[in-house]
Design goal:
The chain is α+β, with helices and mostly antiparallel strands. The chain is 27% helix and 21% strand. It has a 5-stranded mixed sheet, sandwiched between helices. Strands 1-2-3-4 form a 4-stranded antiparallel sheet. Helix 5 runs parallel beside helix 9.
């Protein structure tokens, strides 16, 4: 059957058809907030919703009215094709706090399903299929009951990642050799670190690398010898006056600085095998050593398919909430790396980075 393009009108009408007295759950189990539709403006929005968040004890709840904009509706509608998975975070570049609310409502309509397609990742000359993460898929020939979320099996369907090879053979670790999964974790951690160094360089930024990773070699040079890598954290202007900050920050995986060393666009911990808490604790210690850095962007970079729920949970822990943690999936680092290879000019590097981040504190 041939289908016309999916439109903002189609999307808005589908959500308008949902029960406006119902309360809707997010598809992610770790998200405790729920949604209610207050008003749908036809034909193309906006959509006014109420976000309901329970208190920690569960006895009280906070309600906030938010609007899903016409622009959001149009952008998502333009990305929808029959029987093709759509990653909503990727459509919006992880911007817009209400993107997950729009995804949630659409999944409750009768022609949309939750799915987890695999990912084909190129590694040198070979390929590897990895577990996929959350997508929605439009099935115009297979409606389900409205008001519930249904998961669609998509066996044999994979998202092909662009050639991600970053010259793996050019990366040499100075650390004691590991075996099995631990060796793979260490290798991928170091790859992400190199990518973040190269992304910073392309964006006109300098970068600090964790002290215990200075000896990792890429293209025959130790990371500490790369031209945009900072040699001594104690000499960076942004940390002057905070005697404890260089020590507190020396084991943080990546800290991005502008060329003058006065501003810090990103403070990044790469988590793979060590868990999330250790990285959050290091970043909190860094922030407490230099209180002026409270408004900086603190980021956990981690695999797409394993850590998202854990990061969302930990970011909402009272001890870490003041960090306002952002999540940077590995796949987003790879996208950022390949985009920065294009020698882009005239962009705001901070705003550009933020389009790749997810906000675990948003509903």
């Amino acid at each position: 059957m041939q289908y016309s393009d999916y439109t903002a009108t189609n999307l808005t009408k589908a959500i308008d058809g949902l029960n406006k007295r119902a309360i809707y759950d997010y598809p992610t189990k770790t998200t405790k907030s729920r949604l209610k539709i207050l008003q749908v403006t036809l034909p193309e929005g906006p959509i006014l919703i109420e976000r309901i968040t329970p208190s920690k004890g569960g006895k009280e709840q906070k309600t906030v009215e938010v609007s899903i904009s016409v622009d959001m509706i149009q952008r998502l509608a333009n990305a929808i094709k029959p029987n093709r998975p759509v990653n909503v975070d990727r459509v919006f570049g992880a911007s817009y706090n209400t993107r997950s609310a729009l995804e949630t409502l659409l999944l409750h309509t009768e022609y949309f399903y939750l799915c987890y397609p695999g990912r084909i990742q190129y590694v040198g000359q070979s390929t590897k299929i990895k577990n996929g993460h959350k997508h929605l898929i439009y099935r115009p020939d297979s409606p389900h009951r409205a008001g519930i979320i249904e998961t669609q099996e998509v066996q044999g369907m994979c998202i092909i990642e662009a050639d991600r090879d970053i010259q793996i053979d050019a990366l040499t670790s100075n650390k004691p050799p590991l075996e099995g999964a631990e060796a793979e974790y260490q290798r991928e951690h170091e790859q992400m670190q190199v990518l973040l160094v190269k992304c910073a360089e392309a964006l006109g930024l300098n970068v600090w690398i964790a002290k215990n990773d200075h000896g990792v070699q890429y293209n025959g040079k130790r990371l500490i010898e790369q031209k945009n890598v900072i040699k001594d954290l104690r000499k960076v202007p942004a940390l002057q006056g905070y005697t404890g900050a260089p020590k507190a920050g020396e084991l943080i995986d990546c800290i991005w600085f502008d060329k003058e060393g006065r501003n810090i666009p990103a403070i990044i911990e790469i988590e793979h095998s060590t868990g999330v808490t250790s990285g959050l604790t290091r970043m909190k210690g860094f922030m407490e050593a230099a209180p002026r850095l409270m408004d900086m962007t603190y980021i956990i970079a981690a695999p797409d398919d394993k850590y998202r729920a854990k990061i969302h949970q930990k970011a909402n822990d009272p001890q870490f909430r003041e960090l306002n943690i952002k999540y940077l999936p590995y796949s987003a680092i790879l996208d950022l790396y390949h985009l920065t290879r294009r020698n882009m000019c005239g962009i705001d590097n901070i705003k550009f980075l933020h389009t790749f981040l997810e906000d675990p504190l948003a509903g």
